TrEMBL record:
EC class name: transferase
Disordered, as annotated region: 179-199, 286-312, 453-472, 609-634
PROSITE patterns with a match to the protein in the record: HECT (PS50237)
EC number: 2.3.2.26
Basic and acidic residues bias locations: 611-625
Protein's UniProt name: HECT-type E3 ubiquitin transferase
GO CC term, one of those recorded: nucleus
Transferase keyword on record: yes
Any Gene Ontology biological process: regulation of signal transduction
Keyword terms: mRNA transport, Nucleus, Signal, Transferase, Transport, Ubl conjugation pathway
């Protein structure tokens, strides 16, 4: 064995040295270059010595030297023999010239070794015996490089692959009977034992402490392997096959018939001998061939060197898929030792994935008049049973999480061979999905049973504001809960831990394989022809209903993160119900459907006209029009998807916060068209990622901006206005005149703060304070006083968009209608309250009363002042001559609001939006609603609940009312984003006064926050009047109902005018 190790070491040394070329040595320092040349000469001499040792004076084949283990001829004596030259090993390590060793990619037949084989079958079998050695000091890498170098000879390569497959197949055979026979012989009487003869295959292992056993076991005339040796031998064979598959993948698949017929003929060599037959023959006393004794050499006498025997053998190539190496490897997926070992299954899948790259692809459609290219015969005659073996790995969860990527690659490559194979693979995968879904449903229902039992046994959390419960009393002075006796069973705290949750969170859980199988189906399906939802193919309604019910139960537990247990299952639901390919044309049509400012003269350019039902009460599902296009089909399974997303919106956002894949790339990409379901932080992360992708591959440089601190707005306008949008996206480097500060980010933030204040400078007449709340700003209809006002508006639009682009905050708070203009959301008559409260009250009166109650006649026209000129503008053609009636008054309200809020500022609004969209694309900014856009521009405020409570007035309520205590408790439970939305809901803006809530502004000056009692139905949501900072709170009966309605109001009814 030591001679075999010496061969491996020497050959690998030669191969490794050949990687260094003369050009590499020439760039070394002179001392190192000289040392390298000396080492190269020494290597050449040592190579000659090794070649002489293997075949120089003996005349025998290298296999004879490797096989010879006679007692009369010691290895050391052979080393002292004469050194000759071995011409038959020439060229083994010349990798630097033709890329034999350095190329690890695709194999080309041009670098195959022609001529005789370097080693015969017996020598190769002796070399592969090293696979059964599990020594920690064995250099596996060198051994692999030697075998790989030998494989550049085609017959040798085919024989080695077949031998490795034979080794793997033998490792899966049972050896229990042979072990018992062997143990019986050892236990028998000493006289009856057969004399143990010395064998060549005497490799041993330690199966247990203090025990020694042979790796090879005789079973009649058959060699078997010890069970423990079979495991590492199979692993070694898989690793070596994987290395060969990276370069010689084409040799694992069937050969073409033409190539096989070319190799057939009278000169073809007889088939090669089997690997195990060679080992069995070599291990018999008469099966080994010893090399002849070296001839004695007389000094000065020339001894003719015998001609070496040529090493030739042939290895036939398989034609059928079942007979090929690829087919035999697939069959091994059902082998006993492979199935019970997931690491071995992963290695086998990795090997199959490498081999599948060489499979022929489906021929493309021929051009007119051209003949269609036929697929190989083994593709046409494929076996469905072999495909089933691959899919069984998924349905039976035989691999680990790491093997899922390899099996996906394998199935995708197999399905690309032909349309029939793709159809068969999809059908098999659908069967696996159904099987996994049934198991997952059973686990979900088991968890629901445990949750129901936990809810029955464990009492709920006691509320400090509710009346005393069992074991507690309420202090009548401080209203604090006092515990007078401990509970019989302690309340559950921390994470929810149930026995049925463990298999759900395992890496090889049913839902993990269920999700990955669905993803593989989507990879295989052709989106051009199959753009329908996967749920149209088959349904799993019982599974999704069980999942929905279980999520509802998990939301009611004390562990708010317990719903993340079903992250893979929820992802699978979206993957299955979302369309396979989102229609880009629908998104483009939605964007084009939004009216443009310059195109219409009457209606608001960026505010699509509201329909009649918008004047009734805003439905939560219709509020976000910009990102939820009505063009999208909401029938069938898509409606089911929307219903599920609406019901589990909180759960969905929790999952998306933990989701590492970009929203537009994963199965949740359909939510990009329904961003109303997403929370602000999830939208913002998607928005930032999309902005980064827009600039991917573009190098941004610094743009120096020189301004005077006393004239920041004018200087910035002069420096930036004529810059193109791409230059605006560069990083601004701010330099204040007569100051030595270096801008490392601080000066840029200061510049944003200063210019955001200068925007509202009355001297520029660009914006005016809203008369409704006296806090927010709206576009000044009289801006024509500034002759350059349209250029300024475009500049201001770019500045605000640039701040969003740079993720900087501005001190800018606009009216809700302006935010809607930016987003392209319909402007409604309720937005008039903050801009013209008297006009708004008149519209409310008209809507709630009969038209005759006005006492005067209305026509479809309106007096409008634009650029200081008052004119009568028709709402419809010839509108000044058409009277408003009870039947068309809602149409009048809709049109007059559009004209009132946008018609008088049409040109200013156009300029502002043009500048804004130069920096931020409209399709990206439109994912937000008006509340979220204000938070994106101005940031999240720090809402001090105690300060707000101290400056609150109550009407028909008292500070000690149970509903008021529940209200403050619910407000404290909100995070900062929800508190900001609440502030927007009741005041119209998220801005917190600098002096605190004691300085909260209303329509008539300082107006504290008010809570009014609403004695109407408790089924109504809380309503708000932003002009008076007023909240109308119904008398809810429970805390949960109050918190739920308040939460829904601030998220769904951001109009804030009492619609439930």
């Amino acid at each position: 064995m030591w001679l075999l190790s010496l061969l491996v070491f020497r050959v690998s040394w030669v191969v490794g040295f050949s990687d260094m070329e003369d050009s590499q040595i020439s760039v070394l320092p002179p001392e190192l270059a000289a040392e390298a040349q000396n080492l190269r000469r020494d290597w050449q001499l040592m190579q000659e010595h090794v070649m002489n040792l293997l075949g120089g004076a003996s005349g025998g084949s290298p296999g004879a030297v490797l096989r010879y283990r006679g007692r009369d001829s010691a290895p050391r004596s052979r080393l002292r023999g004469g050194w000759g030259q071995a011409s038959h090993l020439h060229g083994l390590g010349e990798s630097s010239s033709d890329g034999v060793v350095t190329v690890l990619g695709q194999h080309s037949s041009t670098i195959d070794r022609q001529g005789n084989a370097l080693l015969d079958q017996e020598a190769l079998a002796s070399l592969l015996v090293m696979l059964f050695v599990d020594a920690p000091k064995f250099n596996v890498m060198r051994f692999h490089r030697v075998v790989r170098s030998l494989c550049f000879h085609p017959p040798t390569r085919r024989w080695i692959i077949r031998a490795l497959l034979a080794i793997m197949e033998r490792t899966g055979e049972k050896v229990a009977l042979a072990l018992r026979r062997q143990e019986g012989r050892k236990r028998g009487p000493k006289s009856s034992r057969q004399p143990e003869r010395p064998t060549w295959l005497n490799i041993r292992l330690d199966p247990a402490l203090g025990s020694r056993a042979n790796v090879f076991i005789y079973s009649g005339k058959k060699l078997l392997l010890h069970p423990q040796a079979a495991s590492f031998a199979c692993r070694h064979a898989l690793e070596l096959l994987t290395l060969l598959a990276k370069t010689f993948a084409a040799n694992f698949i069937p050969a073409s018939q033409e190539k096989t017929q070319d190799e057939a003929g009278p000169s073809r060599q007889p088939p090669a001998e089997d690997f195990w037959a060679i080992l069995l023959r070599l291990d018999t006393p008469g099966g080994r061939v010893a090399p002849p004794e070296p001839q004695k050499r007389t000094p000065g006498q020339h001894v003719p060197r015998p001609k070496p025997t040529p090493v030739t053998f042939s290895e036939p190539e398989a034609v059928a898929l079942e007979e090929s190496a690829f087919g035999r490897l697939i069959v091994m997926l059902r082998a006993r030792n492979i199935r019970k070992s997931k690491p071995l299954t992963d290695k086998l899948l990795r090997l199959l994935a490498y081999v599948s790259i060489a499979l022929p692809k489906e021929p493309p459609e021929p051009e007119e008049g051209a003949a269609r290219q036929e697929s190989p015969a083994f593709i046409k005659n494929y076996s469905v049973e072999m495909l089933k073996m691959i899919v069984e790995v998924l349905s039976e969860k035989s691999c680990t999480e790491d093997g899922l990527d390899d099996i996906a690659t394998l199935l995708v490559n197999v399905s690309e061979c032909s349309a029939a194979m793709r159809e068969s693979v999809i059908n098999l995968l659908l069967g696996a999905v159904t099987e996994l879904a049934q198991r997952l449903e059973e686990q979900i229902r088991k968890l629901m049973e445990e949750l129901a039992a936990t809810a029955t046994d464990t009492p709920g959390d006691p509320s400090p504001d509710e009346p005393s419960r069992r074991g507690t009393l309420q202090d009548r002075f401080t209203r604090e809960v006092v515990v007078v006796s401990s509970e019989g069973r302690p309340r559950a705290t921390g994470d929810l831990q149930l026995p049925s949750m463990a298999p759900l969170v395992a890496k090889t859980s049913n839902q993990t394989f269920f999700l990955r199988t669905l993803k593989i189906i989507f990879q295989i399906r052709k989106p051009d022809a199959e753009d329908t939802s996967l749920s149209d193919t088959f349904t799993l309604d019982t599974l999704w209903q069980a999942l929905s019910d279980c999520l509802e139960l998990l939301k009611q537990t004390h562990d708010h993160h317990a719903v993340l247990v079903f992250q893979s299952a929820v992802e699978a639901f979206f993957l299955m119900h979302a369309p396979a390919k989102r229609a880009e044309g629908a998104a483009a049509a939605t964007s084009e459907a939004r009216l443009d400012v310059a195109a219409l003269d009457v209606v608001s350019p960026m505010s699509p006209i509201a329909h009649e039902n918008d004047l009734q009460r805003p439905s939560p599902k219709e509020r976000q029009v910009d990102a939820s296009p009505s063009h999208v089909s909401t029938t069938g399974h898509h409606q089911k998807f929307l219903k599920f997303a609406e019901k589990h919106r909180t759960v969905l956002n929790q999952i998306l916060r933990q989701y590492t894949t970009h929203l537009a790339d994963g199965p949740f990409a359909v939510l990009v068209d329904h961003t109303r379901i997403l929370d602000f932080d999830v939208k913002r992360r998607y928005f930032r990622t999309e902005l980064e992708r827009c600039d991917e591959g573009i190098r941004r440089e610094e743009l120096a901006i020189h301004v005077n601190r006393m004239n920041v707005f004018e200087d910035s306008f002069r420096e930036l206005y004529r810059r193109n949008p791409e230059e605006w996206k560069n990083r601004f480097y701010i330099a204040f005149e007569d100051e030595e500060g270096q801008d490392a980010g601080g000066l840029l933030r200061e510049w944003y703060v200063i210019i955001s204040r200068e925007i509202f400078n009355p001297n520029y007449a660009l914006f005016t304070v809203s008369p409704g709340d006296r806090v927010t700003y709206m576009i000044n209809p009289s801006s024509h006083a500034n002759s350059n006002h349209l250029c300024y508006y475009k500049f201001v639009g770019r500045v605000i968009a640039k701040a969003i682009y740079d993720n900087k905050l501005l001190e800018c708070y606009f009216t809700r209608s302006l935010y809607k203009h930016i987003l392209g959301i319909r402007v409604k008559y309720t937005d008039m309250e903050s801009e013209d409260y008297d006009f708004y009250k008149g519209l409310v009166f008209l809507k709630e009363n009969h038209i005759t109650a006005l006492g005067y006649e209305l026509t479809f026209s309106l007096e409008l002042q634009e650029f200081g000129v008052t004119e009568v503008r028709d709402l419809i053609p010839n509108g000044r001559n058409i009277t408003v009636t009870e039947e068309n008054k809602l149409e009048y309200i809709r049109l007059v609001c559009q004209l009132k809020m946008s018609g008088s500022i049409k040109q200013q609004l156009n300029a502002f939006l043009d500048g804004f969209y130069d920096i931020i694309p409209k399709r990206l900014i439109s994912i937000f609603n008006e509340q979220e856009l204000e938070l994106l521009i101005s940031g999240l405020p720090n809402v001090d609940i105690e300060d707000l409570r101290a400056n609150t007035e109550y009407h028909k309520y008292s500070p000690n009312s149970i509903q008021i205590q529940w209200f403050w408790r619910a407000l404290r439970s909100f995070d900062q984003a929800d508190r900001a939305k609440f502030l927007q809901f009741v005041t119209g803006t998220s801005k917190v006064p600098l002096q605190g809530f004691a300085a909260l502004e209303g329509m008539n000056g300082i107006q504290k926050f008010q809570i009014h009692r609403d004695d109407r139905s408790t089924d109504r949501l809380p309503s708000a009047h932003t002009c008076f900072n007023q909240l109308d709170l119904p008398v809810y009966k429970t805390y949960d109902k109050l918190r739920e309605c308040l939460y829904k109001a601030i998220h769904e009814c951001s109009e804030g005018f009492g619609f439930a």
